[in-house]
Amino acid sequence: MRLDMMGRWGGKTGRTNRWHTVASSLVLVASLVAWPAAWAVQPQPPAAAAPLQFRITEGNIENAFFQQGDVAAHLLLNSGAKPRVLVAFPAGNSGAGIWFEPTIAPVRWSLDSVTGQSHTVDGHAWHGIVARATVTGDTLVIKDAVLGSIRVLRDYQLGQGFARQAAATPQIVAKPELAERSVRWQRQRVDGAPGYAIALTADNGRFVREGEHIVLHPDHAGEAVRLHIEASTGETPLTPFTNLLNDKAQPDARSRQALQFLSYREKFLAGSWRFDTYFGRDTLMSLRLLMPVLQPGAVDAGIASVLARLAPDGQVAHEEGIGEFAVLQHLKDLGKPSATPLYDYVMVDDDYMLPPVAAAWLLEDPRGRAGARAFLAGKVDAQRQGDALVRNLLFVAASSEAFARQPVYTNLVSLKPNSQVGQWRDSNEGIGRGRYPYDVNAVWMPAALRAIGQFLDAGLLDDYTTPAQRERLRTAAASAGGWERHASALFTVNLSSERAAQQVSDYAKQIGVADAPALKALGSGALQFPAISLDAQGHPVPVLNSDEGFGLLFGQPDAATLDRDVGTLMRPFPAGLMTDAGMVVANPAYADRDVWSRFGNNAYHGTVIWAWQQAIMAAGLKRQLARTDLPATTRAHLTAAQTELWRGICAAGAMRTSELWSWSYSNGRYRIEPFGAEGAHEDESNAAQLWSTVFLALPPPETASGASSCQ
Fold first, then answer.
1. Running DSSP on this structure, what letter comes out for residue 6?
2. What is the dihedral of CA 693, 310, 297, 696, to 10 degrees?
3. Averaged over 482-504, what is the pLDDT?
4. Whether the predicted pLDDT of 56 surpasses 50
5. Contact at 8 Å (CB) between 363 and 454?
6. I need a surface site. Which of 270, 353, 388, 560 has the fewest CB within 10 A?
7. Is omega for the bond preceding 51 within 30 degrees of 0, making it cis?
8. 3-state DSSP call for residue 479?
9. Strand ranges (DSSP E) for 425-519?
10. What digits encode the pLDDT tens for the residues 409-420?
11. What pLDDT, in 10s, does the model give residues 522-565?
């Protein structure tokens, strides 16, 4: 998604553009003029349950979510100087957006009601929403309306590729249908399938064509304009779960609502509005953390969705290209349209996540273990799911063998050729321009190899492997300890106390924050921590990072390692990762000065806070504290770290379902800033992110008095 600007090919910010050449195909609009007879709205039958409806406000952005039956939609209204109306649909990962020209005075949207609607067009069902809202401002000038794939809307938002795609495939551009009180855009998908529509209708305003633009004027200068917003898609709807959580889930209404909106029997969605479809890593990590509170059918469906999208050689799909995005890519590559899904396999970390996550369910959780054999015998695309899992395990084993034989850095798992991304920090600067990610090699590979051993010991692979395959898998599993030990050593960063203190002091001055608390916590000893990556020459990239949380959740570090690494991470920023706004995911203070600006608090994977990384750390600390083999001093250190981490988590409760957030600093304190909501960052954050709902399975630890640490 953001392979050019941020790394991925179509995923999170980096999820913007891996196939950016196609990513500009969107033009959707809901009708505002009278709908033609073919668009006659059919009343929905009475629903068995009330619709899921909730709202999340972040900075200038009001997000409204609606889900009922075949209708699922996310409406986004952007106030401020860059107004925007956008509707995203999980169906087909499709959407429609209207962008306005920048305004002199800030615009303010106020949302009233949102309802669902279904109608037929030429015999095909379309599903969408109708919203009532008001907007202030004397005039609003429409810049563009874009309808189609969310990946195309994403590209347009980032200023990437839409004009080029529209020139190559003009069918993606919907022409406005203008009336005095309304404007609407509607078009079919480029292959002739049911398409997309969006429309605005004003109660007390007029739409006027002025030159090349359509302008909305209020009937009376200065008054707020009352608008009806309609948007719909003809893409095939998904099937929501009707029984998603068990009674162990936390009673957090907002997280429950966000999870419900993002969860479907066909797949879990990574986040809305920008990633309303399957992402392998997001699915796997969310399942692992939510596993204790999900119903068995939901976990089975999530793992099955990953197995269904494996490459022939067993690699896990990072992101899928579906709907019109797939049609456009096939048209470009093959010269003919096809809606056959396309899958991206550029990421390397999710390949090694699948074995330990599958083992956590099928071998370690009593509910999953009870149905493990039936699950593996179940079919996915005419193939047994056990066969698909074995393909992945054999891929993992094969990619482990070179380093197991000769533990040198060139035999580690690297990013793929010509790719700048490969793990969750999937922006171009995410791992400091390194080639060998720390987490993939020091955590995920050893965890995957151990999981292979677990599956073999349980006998679950016997029906899906030959004796020779089992022997190869057994050899690979036996190398887990050596992999972990030798790989970890290659990533170790060592700094003298004097060098570390000077770096922290200089970096603090550079970014305008206080250094005294950080220097005090740093102490006088030498500093040692795992690098975020190795560069192409095998040198550690000395960026302190949160990926050690993966090791806490999936590994069993010794006491000395726990004391060192957890203590380092929990120091106040910019010595460690902790701020009043939460735990940042990267700290470049110990790197060269030219790295500092690339990891700022405006960078997607810079000194910003990701909810799920805090959850990983919280779950990891909880897991380590459950051990019985640690000395009292180490347990005390872990407990103190847990308290400090949860202080930051609780302080950011208002952002808990968001993808990420940033911070500002004044009067000695770090204050939360929504990422992208004010236009000061390189992308924007999803208001509802799948792996940010995982605190439903992570209750805050109790204090000594028995109260929740978040009270």
1. T
2. -10
3. 98
4. yes
5. yes
6. 560
7. no
8. coil
9. 436-437, 492-495
10. 999 999 999 999
11. 999 999 999 999 999 999 999 999 999 999 999 999 999 999 99
> Average pLDDT, whole number, for the chain?
91
Beta carbons within 10 angstroms of residue 271's beta carbon: 27
List beta partners, residue 671.
664
Reference 326, options 95, 72, 149; nearest CA is: 149
Q: Three-state DSSP class for 592? A: coil
Residue 632's contacts (CB-CB under 8 Å, 6 or more residues apart) are: none
Cα of first residue to Cα of last residue in the chain, in angstroms, is 39
Cβ atoms within 10 Å, residue 215 = 17
Residue labelled with tokens 């500093």: 527
Phi-psi region of 228 (alpha: psi -120 to 50; beta: other; left: phi over 0): beta
What's the pTM?
Answer: 0.92
What pLDDT digit, counting tens, does each position of 153-171 carry? 999 998 887 888 888 899 9
pLDDT of res. 38: 34
Contact 449, 400 (CB under 8 A): yes
Q: What pLDDT, on the 0 to 100 scale, is given for residue 9?
A: 38
Q: Of the candidates 482, 472, 474, which has an alpha carbon nearest to the alpha carbon of residue 456?
A: 474
Residue located via tokens 């405006």? 602
- Measured between alpha carbons, how far is residue 163 from residues 20, 321, 332, 471 in Å? 12, 20, 16, 54
Q: Cα separations (Å) of 423 from 433, 616, 629, 680?
A: 12, 15, 32, 25
pLDDT at 681: 62
- The DSSP letter of residue 640 is H
| Long-range contacts of 493-498, Cβ-Cβ distance < 8 Å, separation of 24 or more | 493/527, 493/528, 493/529, 493/530, 493/531, 493/540, 493/542, 493/590, 494/526, 494/527, 494/528, 495/526, 495/527, 495/528, 495/542, 495/590, 496/526, 496/527, 497/522, 497/523, 497/524, 497/525, 497/526, 497/527
Supply 551's token pair.
């090791």
Write the CA distances from 191 to 165, 198, 326, 375, integer angstroms.
16, 19, 11, 37
Helix, strand, coil shares of the chain as percentages rounded to 5?
A: 35, 25, 40
How far apart, in whole angstroms, are the C-alpha atoms of residue 315 and residue 300?
A: 19
Q: For residue range 244-277, list pLDDT tens digits in order.
A: 999 999 999 999 999 999 999 999 999 999 999 9
Give the 3-state secondary structure of residue 538.
coil
Separation of alpha carbons 296 and 684, rounded Å: 34
Average pLDDT over residues 26-30: 30
Element (H, E) at 530: strand 527-530
Q: Which of 356, 426, 347 is nearest to 2 (CA)?
A: 426
Is residue 669 within 8 A of residue 54, CB to CB? The reply is no
Confidence of residue 482 (pLDDT cuts 50, 70, 90): very high
pLDDT tens digits, 79-108? 999 999 999 999 999 999 999 999 999 999
DSSP-derived 3-state class of residue 391: helix
> What does the alpha-carbon distance between residue 550 and residue 329 come to, in Å, rounded to a whole number?
35
SS3 697: helix
| E strand spans, 383-462 | 383-384, 436-437
* pLDDT of amino acid 382: 87
